[in-house]
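If it is no trouble, can you show me the amino acids of a protein and the C-alpha cells describing how it folds?
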Amino acid sequence: MDLKAKFRGAMLGVNVGDSIGTHFEGSGRVSKADVEKAAEGELKFSDDTQMTMDLAESLVELRGFGAEYTAKLFAKHYDPGKGYGASTAYVLNKIREGAAWDAPAKEAMEGQGSYGNGAAMRIAPVALSCHHDQYLLRKIAEDSSRITHTHELGVEGGVLQAFAIGFALESDPSDEFSSEEFVLRLMEVTKNEVYLEKLRAVHQLLDAGTPSDVVEKLGNGGEAFNSVPTAIYSFLASPKDFKGAVLGAISLGGDADTIGAMTGAISGAYLGEAAIPEEWAEKLSEREKLTRLADWLFFMFLMEVRGKRCETCLTEEKVRAYKVDLEGDDDMDNYVLMCPRCRREAEEEKGMTLAKPRKSGKYRSIYRRVYKKDTVGKHVQ
C-alpha cells in the first residue's frame, strides 16, 4: 500500500474539491457535466485549503499539535477574500486584535459556539498524523476544532471527518471495499445521535438514493451535520473513482466547495495521489506546498510509529527518512530512518548495512539494502 501517495492524495484532494467547488458555492444542484466543464477553467482555492495548509504547517513546525500557535497561524493568514464563514472570521479577527486564542470561539453564536463545518474542512492533516491512534486522533481533532468551533455538533463534525479520512487511509484500494463496513466503523466512533442518524441515512441512500434524496436527508449546507455526512456519502457512492466522487459531491450544490474538499480528502486518502486527474492537479497553485506538507506529515508518522532513532546506529540526532529503492512503492517497508553519518557511510560502502544490536528491549539486528549515491533514497523533505 503506497502510504505516502495516500498522504499526498488527501492533502491534494482537499485543494481539488475546494477549488472546483468554489464555482458552485451557494448554488442549487447542478449536473456533473457542468461541474466537469467548470473544472476546465481557472482553479482558485478558498479558506478550506488555506486553513488545511495552516494546520499542517503548525503540526510540522511543532512536531505535534499546539492550539495557541495554530490559532495564531490561522489568524495570520486570514483573508476575507477567501470566503471564510462569518463565525470563523469573527474568531480570527478577535485573535488578530489580541484576544486569547481560546476565548472568541466560545463567544460565537451568542455564546453557544459555531456548529459549522469549518473545523471538519481543514482536519485532514490531523487525520494523517494521528490515524494510527484513535484516542489521540479524537483528542487532537477535538482540540483543533475548538479553536474556531466549540458547539458539540461542530466539534463532532471535525472528529467524524478525521476518522473517515483515517479509515480511508488505512484501507487498501486493491482489496475488496465494503461501504457498509465503513459506515459501521464510523458509527462506532461517534455517540452523537444527530450524526448517528445521518450515518444511518447514508447507509440507506447508498442502496437507493437520488441526488434529491441526498440533499433532503443529508443536507448540503454549511452546518457540519449537513455536510460531513454528505461528503462521506459522496465518497462511498464512488469509492474507486476520485473524479466521480468529487464531481458528485460538488453537483449537490449548497456549500459545494467544502463538501467537495472533504470528499476529496477522503477519496484521496483512500486512492492516493495518482487517482487525481492530472488535468486538475496541474492547475493547483499550491500543489507543491501541499505535496511538501504531506511528505513532512508522512515523515513525522514514520518517526512516530517506527521510533525516533537511526535504524543503523540508534542515535536520535537529525534522523531522516530515506527511500531504499527509488523505483519501489512509497510504503513504510521501503523507507529507512538514518542519521547523516550513517547515510554517508551507506553511500560510500554500498552493499549491505548491519545495524548494531538494540541496547534495550528486543536485541535484534536490522539489515537494509542500501544503494550507491545515484540510488540512495531521497529525503522526504
The first helix runs from residue 3 to 21. The CA atoms of residues 165 and 266 lie 5 Å apart.
